[in-house]
Every structure is written in C-alpha cells, then in structure tokens.
Amino acid sequence: MGAKLLCLFLTSALLAYYLYTPVLEDFEEPWKVMLIAAGVRVLDHVSEVADRLGLMHYMEATRLITNIDYVAPTSDENVTVTDTEFGKVPVRLYLPRKASDGLRRAVLFFHGGGWAIGQAGARSYDYLTRRTSNNLNAVVVSVNYRLVPEYHFPIPFEDVYSVTKFFLQSSVLSQYRVDPDRVCVAGDSAGGNLAAAVAQQLLEDSEVKTKLKAQALLYPALQTLDMNLPSYQDNKNKPVLTRSLMIRFWSEYFTSDPAERAQNCPGFLDRRAAPLLASDAQLRGLPLTYVLTCQHDLLRDDGVMYAVRLRAAGVPVTHDHAKDAFHAVLSFASCPLKLAVGRRLLDRYIAWLNENL
Ligand SMILES: *[C@@H]1O[C@H](CO)[C@@H](O)[C@H](O)[C@H]1NC(C)=O
C-alpha cells in the first residue's frame, strides 16, 4: 500500500512538474496552452536524453518525434495535392481545382522549426497551406528544404532560393497558370527568416526577371547579434520557444562542430542568415510586406525592428501585433490542439494575402 501511494505521489509530482507553466494568465484557453507547453517540455527532455546517451543528435530526436504528425499528400474536392521536386528540391504542391477565369496567384511557403525540424507534410503546415490554396484559389508551393543537423547554413537558404528561382521562370509560371505579378513568399519562424532572406536576395539577382508582389513574415527570426533584447528577456521561458532552444537553433544552423563554432562562426554576419543586417539601401525596393509578431514571443522584437526599418526604407508594411499570442501560434489553428487565437491569426494572415496579393 505504502509503495503504491508513494508511486502515485511521485507520478503526480512529475506530471505537475511537466504541466506547470507560470504564464497562464497571459492566455485564453490556459489548459490547452498548458498541455502544449508540457508536450514541448517532454519533447525537449526526451531529445536531450537521446543526445546525451549518444543515441542521436538532439535535433534528429526532436524531428523524429515531431514527424509523427506527418500526413501524406491528400487531394480534396478543392485542391490537388502532390509531392514533387522543383529544381531537385522536394516540394508539396497545392493546385486549386476550381476553374478560374484568369491567371492565379501563388504563394511559396517555407515552414518553420528552427531550420532543423518541421516539414511541408506536418499536419499543421498541410492545414495552413491547403487553406491558403483553397481560400485564395492560389497555387501554393511548400518547400521541404534540407535540415540541420545533416545540413547547415547556407543550404536551407539555398534550397528555398533555388525553388523560388525555379518557380519564377516564365515557363513554369505559365505551366501552372500563375500571374507573374502576383507571387508571394511566406514563412513562419525559421521559415519567415528564409522568406525575408529570399526576398532580399532576389532584389540583387539579375537572372530573375519576375518581381515578388509580397512577402509575409510570421514571427520571423531575423538577427543573431542580440539574444538579450527585451522580448528575449520577457519571454525566455514562454511556450513554445525558449531562449535556450532558440540559441541552440541558431548555433546549429551555422555548425554542429563546437570547435568551428568557437573559432569563426560561418555565416554569423551574413544577411542571408540574419536579414536584419541588411543596410537601408538593401531594404529599399522590397515588396509589400506583412509582419506578424506576438507579444509573448522572444522573436517579437526581431519582427518589430524589421517592420520599423522596412517602413523607414519606404516599403509598405502591414504589421499585426497579437497581444494574446505566443510563438508558433498558427501551428495551433487546427485539430488536435486548436486554439481560438491560432485560428483567428491564421484567418487574419489569409485575409491579408487575399486583399494584397
Ligand atoms: C471546398 O470549398 C468550399 C467552398 O469554399 C468549402 O465550403 C469546403 O469546405 C471546401 N472543402 C474542403 C475539403 O476544404
């Protein structure tokens, strides 16, 4: 009896430890947020153990577990979904079925996950890109760029850039009946980082004749120089991205070799990795921009600074700031972990695309 009670006590204590999040008053639907935060913590601990035991790299373990969420390409009555390759890079392609009078719009979407996890076929991303395609009657290309720790900067960037260049060829645009004046890049978190970097790079690429109409940056990571910004300090332990995990993502993006990291961190001052490093002159001419930032997100100030700098450089910017949201909230816009705030912000993002693309 005593042993059973002790077991029960220990289990409850462990569960309470995992579930407890000291920030609940900030959010609506606090119990769901608590479950999400607990899930993330379990994921972190399991990956850390796997890494320390030498079973696999932390990021590989995290990816293995999060990939449980994979859904195969599945067409529905409105959208034809296929996995294919654009310029040797795997992509998931969403083609609207509805007949359209003229040419269609297109969104190149780059998923988040610290350049190390996530995929176009993750349930939440499949939901987001499918809805974008359906609601906008747009072609959506969701890119499965290569990931850390097997690949490092600049490879994830180069993969999304080469898909973008491939897609912007006039022969490809006309094959998919896409209007060359209505193409947009978009991404969340690390994907927002990639989208911002792609938009900058295209301005200087004389080989690409088609200009982007817009860029949509959802809580993007944009800089490596200050990990003690107010948003980093305020939110260092908020769901779902902690400061230590973000630092790990950034470090691993550049290299997994501690010796190399100590000497010279390749790419650290490269604006293809940190788009906020661009000069004002390099920001001029960027397309119409949507930036979403969340109050309880350590990347908040990255997005805020970019929005301010873009406006100062004459770029038309819509900056949505969500006071009641945390990082990656759009990944919680669909079942099984659906948050009202996630759904609301996803609707907002799609409405902006609909009005501006
Ligand atoms: C297809 O589009 C219609 C009209 O927008 C919508 O009512 C329906 O739910 C969509 N079907 C799916 C599977 O999304």
Automatic annotation (TrEMBL):
<keyword id="KW-0732">Signal</keyword>
<feature type="active site">
    <location>
        <position position="327"/>
    </location>
</feature>
<dbReference type="InterPro" id="IPR013094">
    <property type="entry name" value="AB_hydrolase_3"/>
</dbReference>
<protein>
    <submittedName>
        <fullName>Arylacetamide deacetylase</fullName>
    </submittedName>
</protein>
<dbReference type="InterPro" id="IPR017157">
    <property type="entry name" value="Arylacetamide_deacetylase"/>
</dbReference>
<keyword id="KW-1015">Disulfide bond</keyword>
<feature type="domain" description="Alpha/beta hydrolase fold-3">
    <location>
        <begin position="107"/>
        <end position="330"/>
    </location>
</feature>
<feature type="signal peptide">
    <location>
        <begin position="1"/>
        <end position="16"/>
    </location>
</feature>
<dbReference type="InterPro" id="IPR050300">
    <property type="entry name" value="GDXG_lipolytic_enzyme"/>
</dbReference>
<feature type="active site">
    <location>
        <position position="297"/>
    </location>
</feature>
<comment type="similarity">
    <text>Belongs to the 'GDXG' lipolytic enzyme family.</text>
</comment>
<dbReference type="GO" id="GO:0052689">
    <property type="term" value="F:carboxylic ester hydrolase activity"/>
</dbReference>
<dbReference type="InterPro" id="IPR029058">
    <property type="entry name" value="AB_hydrolase_fold"/>
</dbReference>
<keyword id="KW-0378">Hydrolase</keyword>
<dbReference type="Pfam" id="PF07859">
    <property type="entry name" value="Abhydrolase_3"/>
</dbReference>
<feature type="active site">
    <location>
        <position position="189"/>
    </location>
</feature>
<dbReference type="GO" id="GO:0016020">
    <property type="term" value="C:membrane"/>
</dbReference>
<dbReference type="InterPro" id="IPR033140">
    <property type="entry name" value="Lipase_GDXG_put_SER_AS"/>
</dbReference>
